[in-house]
Amino acid sequence: MTGPTPSAGRTQRWIVIAVALVLIGALGFAVGRFTMFGTQAAVTTPGTSSPEAGFSRDMQAHHAQAIEMAMEIYRKTEDEELRALSYDIATSQAAQRGEMFDWLVRWGLPQAGGPMMQWMDTGSGHEHGGASSEPLTDAQAREAMGMASADEIAALQAATGTAADCQFLTLMIRHHEGAIPMADALLELGSDPRALEVAQAMKTGQTAEIDAMRSIQQRLGCSG
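User: That's the sequence. What structure does it adopt?
Assistant: Structure tokens below.
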């Protein structure tokens, strides 16, 4: 009697992880509902054009792509260090995304609103293209945020072996580097205590992950 094939085992693990991410996102949503319970009456609720609202909307889109890329490499990498790191990225960002979704629900605000990154254009030094320039298109904003293009995602999906590992690392380092200025902007412009706490955690965590990914790049001999 033969046991499950390796491919069947990998498929089962993929299903388990996908289900886990859904549960983590739901947990993040619940955490957002109960964090700082009983203190919100003393805090001004952010409005739809606030830095907190803009950050929540843009970072949800940013996190969604990071989760997609992390799960892609988790599914097929043979490098155990990279597998562990990609799992951490996917699960932590799924939880944060769920919490940011809930912020907008609790604040009575829509999940979408206004051009991406417009909330950063306040003359604070975080704006992209200048405070007096026209708002960025979504494509321009995604590029400024370090997000991968559709062609880059397709190439990552098609790649295998060390080539896939190196492609992922290049894309995710750039992706993280695009998130840090957004966290900095919220830390300067925002006032909601929990949003500021999450922004600082993102900055600290993603800076450490960039260092870890650069170390893996060096170990694997990735070029570029």
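DSSP finds seven helices and no strands in the chain.
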